[in-house]
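Progress report, Aim 2. The chain analyzed during this reporting quarter is listed below.
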Amino acid sequence: MIRFFILSAILLLGCQSPPTVQSGWQLVLKNDAEGKIVSGNKEMLIDAVRLGYPVRIGWGSNRIEHVADATFLTIFEGKEVFAQIKPIIGQRPAVDSDSLKINFRTNNKWLKMAGTNGFSTSLMTDYLQDSIVGNNTRYNATTWYVNYPMNAPKIQAQPLWREGSPNWEKWSKK
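Predicted structure tokens for the chain:
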């Protein structure tokens, strides 16, 4: 009888699936303007990027909050993540005494890049004149969200590029 319980326990423990992350959009990391982690875990964000999960970034200033899908992500030396958003048509809030409106900025497109180290840069272009009309570089707090698929395993992803991988010697000398 004891053998039966021991064998049953071994079988049950051996059949457990690996831990998973809750599916859907999850706040994974918040960093301040100096890159200090306010909440969350940078390694979870880096793993999510390496696994190809969708990422969104959020930031704000002067009573305004923005959230946008990251369309191009960079991991630098396995330590920092940088995210770009697609260009958007510029907008500007218009506050009247009794109402709030938001208007498009005629002719302007705007894009942003943010990093887990607090670095942030933006660029505004006049898309009719095909010219840059403004840029801004500063340090800014950023919130990072990841969209986890159903039953996403809680794993540490391997770097996509590392010393010793194919072509390392070729590209490291450039």
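The mean pLDDT is 85. The chain is about 15% helix and 50% strand. These observations will guide the mutagenesis work planned for the next reporting period.
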